[in-house]
């Protein structure tokens, strides 16, 4: 999830990642002169607003290398503003038109080219002009960007039923592999849980599951569960906070598990929740933060990735929320935003997941959280 | 001073735009000469993150099957591995870079011994790199399959025997581990 993330890398995640990112920078961080700053006592909403507004106006040059994930960065800013109750700071029509301008279309339904995916591009730099036949010469639309595009539209209250989602959903099936996993882009790419999650979230937001084979996706997800109860990003890999989130959130969105997973008799369930609960709770470290994998440093974003897992399976009451809050506050930057570790500089990805984490902790003044979408909880915008 | 920096920045932008439009044109007209490939390498060096978008697919479209000279194919693929390696040095967590490497290896013209040596280097830099661990499993799978199918990787026996057979020992232990995990 990279980024990426899911988004980037999310997409990459992420983006992603951008997306559910791995955290290797601890080796770079350890400088004896760098003392973590004293924790502030409170969530500094005003400073976060200044930070996001500044980012909305102009991204610092350090983000140049993430230009291909521009839509993801926009999602972090705009959805972040929503958590802070400040979407009135953006011009919603301008934003909607901008996001919609990234949608890829086939020249006509009949020409839905074999194997291509018609979603959203991540940035103008991936968007090539149409050729003389009205076809897209290079269709680089991407699953994670599509998730971010729909997320932004949903957050600003745009009616998603007005989007031309026919070719999007029809062609999304082209990205699903035989084993149930998803490629992010039809030209090829790594297949892993991040993109299964993007697909499920897209179907949920559009209220239409014709874009994916849920049963196959479920099987792939279950194959990603490791011996310790967590989920890796691909079958056989190490349990990972981002992977576990993608697994559980997807299963929840697809309706294979319910909110009562822990409280119910687990014999009828598709997975044993106790081992998962155990793994997830063990990720809360002595400093109060959550780590992404065993023996890694606590990192702001896992407060969301794993906190949300626990919320979804009904086990969040076991989290030491006071300690978590303290850790997160130590990652709160005096410039606004959140950093990955205490004392580091803030970035948009960790800031966004800091806001989602505080929403999960029910911080007063923040919008409530929709844990399975990683977005503010919103009423349906499907014209219902 | 400030004006000079701005001028230098502006010049960089002009250069990048020119590379980019030439790259687009090559891709559109399916031009895969050495010059075209070098251009996309240059773009990758300027911004390694592009490896997750259009660059690998562009390079993967190179019509290898049409090329009858196996040495030429091997040298092109070796060049790919060099480019990916330099991208990985800047960011060893890049999903796209590791994926492109898998694609090159799956063509069957590369040395697995080299891959194991590379992995050894990455693991010693940072042992928790799950991309490297996943890639190791991929490489071991290739080796296991080649033993069964008597494919070309067994030509690499010399490479495998370096350091007193260190890699062979590692692979044996790893396969034992995989078998054990299946029984848990």
TrEMBL record, chain A:
Residues 1-43 are annotated as: Disordered. Residues 11-29 have a biased composition (Acidic residues). Its cofactor is Zn(2+); Mg(2+). Residues 43-373 form the Prenyltransferase alpha-alpha toroid domain. InterPro entries: GGTase_I_beta, PGGT1B-like, Prenyltrans, Terpenoid_cyclase/PrenylTrfase. GO terms for molecular function: CAAX-protein geranylgeranyltransferase activity; metal ion binding. It comes from the Eukaryota. Keywords: Magnesium, Metal-binding, Prenyltransferase, Repeat, Transferase, Zinc. One of its GO terms (cellular component) is CAAX-protein geranylgeranyltransferase complex. Coiled coil: none annotated. Its EC number is 2.5.1.59. Pfam families: Prenyltrans. Belongs to the protein prenyltransferase subunit beta family. PANTHER family: GERANYLGERANYL TRANSFERASE TYPE BETA SUBUNIT (PTHR11774), GERANYLGERANYL TRANSFERASE TYPE-1 SUBUNIT BETA (PTHR11774:SF4). This is Geranylgeranyl transferase type-1 subunit beta. It comes from Brassica carinata. The lineage of its organism: Eukaryota, Viridiplantae, Streptophyta, Embryophyta, Tracheophyta.
From TrEMBL, chain B:
Keywords: Prenyltransferase, Repeat, Transferase. Its EC number is 2.5.1.60. One of its GO terms (cellular component) is Rab-protein geranylgeranyltransferase complex. SUPFAM superfamilies: Protein prenylyltransferase (SSF48439). It is an enzyme of class 2 (transferase). GO terms for biological process: prenylation. Signal peptide: none annotated. It comes from the Eukaryota. It catalyses: geranylgeranyl diphosphate + L-cysteinyl-[protein] = S-geranylgeranyl-L-cysteinyl-[protein] + diphosphate. InterPro entries: Prenyl_trans_a (IPR002088). The keyword Repeat applies. One of its GO terms (molecular function) is Rab geranylgeranyltransferase activity. Catalyzes the transfer of a geranyl-geranyl moiety from geranyl-geranyl pyrophosphate to cysteines occuring in specific C-terminal amino acid sequences. Belongs to the protein prenyltransferase subunit alpha family. This is Geranylgeranyl transferase type-2 subunit alpha.
